[in-house]
């Protein structure tokens, strides 16, 4: 029977009522709706009168509103079918005096079952048996088991029994009497008056050497029909009984002793051995080979085991499958079959299953004039020939599951290896396939591979250059072999010279190409790219444009100007095609060579598009960073971009915002560099300023200083005085947190001059605070106090609560160093209250800890301990690692003063651990205090 598409709607009554939409089961709903649909399906393409429907649903007791209820059921069923398949592969029509289901009969399981039974008639026994097995496989249980009433389905039950009897007869012809005895005993017990089944068990028993049991089966049936029905067995069964009694020779020879007799091997051919030669010097893949070994060793010897080896172009899928096949060839005594399906061949059409079947049948010994023309007959013969054979079938470079399914052999412990650039996930669902996804090689494996291909230990002669070579090849086997081949073809080349050429991003893909052989990384990727629909091609180019390590659906939505769901779906489709990898949920990564190819395609197909797209990406990240930083700590710097992009991620808490920054941080650094190169200076300085809040919270100081220089330069190039002042202020704030404010006075003075030019009070408050802090670092504390007090007064006049609190906190720090402890405590308390009122939890916790330290110096140890403990608890609950570490440092100091040494040591030790995790230099100070306390004890 011709293979049919699974698209559209399919209806099943051979079991519980079932409606499939593109292979997905629909929920039908109420029992009455199920009953109505069942009637329409059973009478498909025929009008079912509404009176007949009412009788079927309610028998003799219909409600007064029965017809109205039926109309409602029809309306809901129509809506369900239309939503599931707008193309209308099945429709419910109103045709007086009732309704009819208009549908292609092939979409009905009972129609397919009937056609399979009909097709089996007159076919050779192997094909007949296979077709009948397929027909019986359509039954999923009792017909319409979940439908109310008593639908008339006796003809379908009779169809199943007839197919069952025909199948047993075909298998008896094939000599499978021993295998059938147990099944027939059960069937005769279940259907004791089916004469044909009784005849089948008599033949099976007789041919199995159980003549007495065969006669007993007849006698038992004879007694039953005489006693219960008052009739004798039919003439055919009586003739069979007489044949058993006289040991008729005709009973001893079934129509076909063994299925293989139908296709005797050709002279000189014992078993097929079609695997291509394995590549010499196969390197690595130990885990993958072990996985395949384990799958083979633990397989069910009565079934077919399928493994789909998938991965990116050039990753080594075919090489792995062929190598493993040769290594385990002795496990498959009946042959090794291989077919290249050309699913992704650059200049060839995918090979049709019919063509592969013809090749396999010839290899299995079928003469050329014995290969059937019809696809179904080829499938049937192929399965019959391999029914009891154990073979390995390697199907290389598959395009989709439909190209594979008809080539799967039957049971007997056979193994099928399918390689593809796609995941072919439906083979897992429908055929129980196992999935093996190949990744790039490890660095040591890559080095060994190059050494093996070149034929000498380059890794010993040029170890550093070799590591750079394999890194530039992305540990991709195809790229590594091409690079090694270039070293072989041109012996005067050194690894270092090849590395220099590969280091140029614009030339790398050209270098990894062997023009004379038609082999190259870009050529392999081009095949996958050309097969993408336009919307996926657009997404692929956009993904290559993202400069960071990974791509999110949010970024793609911004670049492609689409909604988030569509972006996520497209990325998933590209991952399915192995043009990128989903390393975590929503996190997609491109191989370096794939990224270079995507950018080349973008440049070739859409020249000049890159800067416009990069600008959209920068706008997206500016909005996302602004939203996230405001959750970490309230801001008042006048940079407000949080609401400008609809596709940005929206974390809801400070902890979620920090986690978002943690994931995106490498991308943000890369985006600063890319934006600078593209001349997007206004956006660059804004991005640098927006990520500052995160950098302070996580103490990301080294990388921050790197991008801060780009931000400062970008602000100055774009002659944005406010931007320059804000970046200078951010650089100063990070220096405060890392304790490196000495030498920053000149920058503080420049920032303050710009603020005076701008004339905005909040900027004057910020820069006065910065100036005072820098003066304090130069031990000019009295000058610093003057600037701090001026800043506090200005903030109060302008209603700048956040600015006032920040300055009061820093003012208290200087007063503490000068010994003005009571004044410092008063200012610190004021700062704490303002932070609390404005919802700045992080600054509130820091102020609590600072106040605890001041209380300890004032001798108020109980108050100090309370504040420190409160600060630690709030920090632990709010993902504030620095604040928790500082709080434990203060608490440890307070506990030591109270004589609780063991508790103090525990707090200080935990403080050291947290500071070290953050990379904070303060860890050394706390460790010194801990060691001094331990020594004292």
CATH architecture of the domain at 286-438: 3-Layer(aba) Sandwich
Tell me, briefly, the overall form. elongated
Give the fraction of residues assigned to helices. Answer: 55-70%
State the end-to-end CA separation: 89 Å
- CATH fourth-tier homologous superfamily of the domain at 286-438: P-loop containing nucleotide triphosphate hydrolases
Question: What is the helix tally?
Answer: 42
Low-confidence stretches: 1-5, 255-270
Output the strand order for the largest sheet. 8-9-10-7-11
**Overall pLDDT confidence:** 86
What structural class should be given to the helix and strand makeup?
A: alpha/beta
InterPro entries: AfsR-DnrI-RedD_regulator (IPR051677), BTAD (IPR005158), NB-ARC (IPR002182), OmpR/PhoB-type_DNA-bd (IPR001867), P-loop_NTPase (IPR027417), Sig_transdc_resp-reg_C-effctor (IPR016032), TPR-like_helical_dom_sf (IPR011990), TPR_rpt (IPR019734)
Family: Belongs to the AfsR/DnrI/RedD regulatory family.
Domain OmpR/PhoB-type: 1-103
DNA-binding region: 1-103
Properties at a glance:
single chain; 937 residues; alpha/beta; Rossmann fold; Arc Repressor Mutant, subunit A; 5-stranded parallel β-sheet; 3-stranded antiparallel β-sheet; 42 helices; 15 strands; 61% helix; elongated; disordered N terminus; DNA-binding SARP family transcriptional activator; ADP binding; transcription regulation; DNA-binding
Reconstruct the topology from this structure:
Layout: E1 9-12, E2 18-21, E3 24-25, H1 31-42, E4 48-49, H2 50-58, H3 66-84, E5 90-95, E6 98-103, H4 109-120, H5 125-136, H6 154-173, H7 177-190, H8 195-207, H9 211-229, H10 235-245, H11 286-297, E7 305-310, H12 317-327, E8 336-340, H13 353-363, H14 375-385, E9 392-396, H15 402-405, E10 415-420, H16 425-431, E11 434-437, H17 443-454, H18 458-461, H19 463-472, H20 477-489, H21 495-502, H22 505-511, E12 513-514, E13 519-520, H23 521-530, H24 534-545, H25 553-560, H26 564-576, E14 581-584, E15 587-589, H27 592-605, H28 609-632, H29 654-677, H30 681-698, H31 701-717, H32 721-738, H33 745-758, H34 761-777, H35 781-798, H36 801-817, H37 821-837, H38 841-857, H39 861-877, H40 881-897, H41 901-918, H42 922-936
Parallel strand pairs: 7-10, 7-11, 8-9, 9-10
Antiparallel strand pairs: 1-2, 2-3, 4-6, 5-6, 12-13, 14-15
Pfam families: BTAD (PF03704), NB-ARC (PF00931), TPR_12 (PF13424), Trans_reg_C (PF00486)
Family: Belongs to the AfsR/DnrI/RedD regulatory family.
Keywords: DNA-binding, Transcription, Transcription regulation
């Amino acid at each position: 029977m011709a293979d049919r598409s699974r698209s559209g709607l399919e209806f099943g009554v051979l079991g519980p009522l079932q409606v499939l939409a593109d292979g997905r089961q629909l929920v039908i709903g109420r029992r009455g709706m199920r009953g109505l649909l069942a009637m329409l399906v059973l009478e498909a393409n025929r009008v079912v009168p509404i009176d007949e429907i009412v009788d079927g649903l309610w028998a003799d007791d219909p409600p007064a509103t029965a017809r109205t209820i039926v109309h409602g059921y029809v309306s809901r069923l129509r809506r369900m079918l239309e939503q599931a398949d707008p193309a209308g592969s099945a429709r419910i029509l109103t045709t007086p005096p009732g309704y009819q289901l208009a549908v292609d009969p092939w979409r009905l399981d009972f129609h397919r079952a009937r056609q399979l039974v009909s097709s089996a008639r007159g076919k050779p026994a192997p094909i007949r048996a296979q077709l009948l097995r397929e027909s019986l496989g359509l039954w999923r249980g009792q017909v319409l088991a979940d439908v109310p009433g008593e639908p008339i389905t006796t003809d379908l039950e009779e169809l199943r029994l007839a197919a069952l009897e025909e199948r047993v007869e075909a298998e008896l012809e094939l000599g499978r009497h021993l295998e059938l005895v147990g099944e027939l005993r059960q069937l005769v017990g279940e259907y004791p008056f089916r004469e044909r089944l009784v005849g089948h068990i008599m033949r099976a028993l007789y041919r199995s050497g159980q003549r007495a049991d065969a006669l007993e089966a007849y006698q038992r049936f004879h007694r039953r029909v005489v006693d219960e029905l008052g009739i004798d067995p039919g003439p055919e069964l009586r003739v069979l009984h007489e044949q058993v009694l006289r040991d008729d020779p005709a009973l001893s020879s079934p129509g076909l002793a063994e299925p293989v007799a139908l296709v005797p091997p050709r002279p000189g051919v014992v078993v097929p051995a079609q695997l291509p030669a394995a590549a010499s010097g196969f390197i690595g893949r130990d885990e993958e080979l072990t996985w395949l070994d384990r799958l083979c060793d633990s397989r069910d010897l009565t079934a077919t085991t399928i493994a789909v080896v998938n991965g990116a172009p050039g990753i080594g899928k075919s090489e792995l499958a062929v190598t493993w096949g040769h290594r385990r060839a002795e496990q498959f005594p009946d042959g090794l079959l291989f077919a290249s399906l050309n699913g992704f061949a650059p200049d060839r059409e995918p090979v049709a299953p019919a063509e592969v079947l013809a090749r396999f049948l010839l290899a299995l010994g079928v003469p050329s004039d014995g290969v059937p023309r019809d696809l179904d007959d080829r499938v049937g013969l192929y399965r019959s020939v391999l029914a009891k054979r154990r073979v390995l079938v390697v199907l290389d470079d598959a395009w989709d599951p439909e190209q594979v399914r008809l080539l799967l052999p039957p049971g007997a412990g056979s193994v099928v290896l399918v390689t593809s650039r796609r995941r072919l996930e439906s083979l897992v669902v429908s055929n129980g396939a196992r999935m093996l996804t190949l990744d790039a090689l490890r660095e040591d494996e890559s080095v060994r591979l190059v050494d093996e291909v070149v034929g000498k230990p380059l890794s010993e002669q040029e170890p550093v250059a070799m590591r750079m070579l394999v890194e530039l090849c992305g540990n991709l086997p195809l790229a590594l072999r091409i690079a090694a081949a270039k070293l072989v073809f041109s012996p005067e080349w050194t690894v270092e010279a090849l590395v220099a050429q590969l280091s140029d991003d614009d030339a790398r893909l050209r270098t990894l190409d062997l023009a004379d052989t038609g082999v190259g990384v870009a050529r392999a990727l081009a095949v996958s790219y050309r097969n993408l629909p336009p919307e996926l091609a657009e997404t692929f180019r956009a993904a290559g444009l993202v400069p960071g390590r990974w791509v999110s659906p949010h970024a793609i939505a911004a670049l492609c100007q689409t909604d988030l769901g569509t972006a996520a779906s497209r990325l998933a489709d590209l991952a399915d095609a192995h043009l990128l990898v989903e390393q975590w949920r929503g996190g997609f990564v491109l191989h370096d060579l794939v990224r270079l190819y995507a950018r080349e395609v973008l440049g070739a197909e859409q020249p000049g598009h890159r800067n416009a797209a990069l600008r959209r990406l920068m706008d997206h990240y500016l909005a996302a960073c602004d939203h996230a930083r405001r959750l970490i700590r309230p801001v008042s710097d006048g940079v407000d971009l949080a609401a400008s992009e609809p596709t940005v991620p929206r974390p809801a808490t400070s902890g979620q915002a920090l986690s978002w920054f943690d994931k995106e941080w490498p991308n943000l650094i890369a985006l600063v560099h890319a934006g600078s190169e593209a001349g997007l200076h206004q956006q660059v300085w804004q991005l640098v300023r927006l990520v500052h809040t995160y950098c302070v919270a996580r103490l990301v100081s080294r990388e921050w200083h790197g991008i801060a220089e780009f931000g400062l330069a970008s602000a100055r190039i774009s002659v944005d005085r406010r931007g320059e002042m804000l970046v200078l202020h951010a650089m100063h704030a990070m220096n405060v947190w890392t304790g490196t404010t000495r030498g920053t006075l000149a920058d503080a003075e420049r920032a303050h001059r710009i603020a005076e030019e701008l004339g905005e009070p909040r900027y004057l408050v910020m820069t006065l605070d910065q100036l005072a802090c820098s003066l304090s670092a130069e031990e000019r504390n009295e000058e610093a106090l003057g600037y701090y007090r001026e800043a506090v007064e200005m903030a109060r006049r302008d209603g700048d609560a956040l600015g006032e609190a920040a300055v009061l906190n820093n003012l208290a720090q200087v007063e503490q160093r000068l010994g003005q402890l009571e004044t410092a405590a008063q200012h610190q308390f004021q700062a704490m209250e303002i932070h609390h009122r404005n919802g700045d939890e992080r600054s509130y916790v820091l102020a609590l800890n600072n106040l605890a330290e001041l209380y300890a110096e004032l001798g108020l140890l109980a108050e100090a301990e309370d504040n420190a403990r409160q600060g630690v608890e709030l920090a632990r609950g709010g993902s504030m690692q620095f604040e928790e570490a500082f709080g434990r440092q203060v608490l440890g100091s307070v506990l030591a003063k109270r004589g609780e040494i063991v508790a103090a040591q525990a707090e200080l030790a935990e403080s050291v651990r947290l500071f070290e995790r953050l990379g904070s230099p303060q860890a050394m100070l706390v460790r010194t205090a801990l060691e001094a306390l331990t020594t004292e004890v």
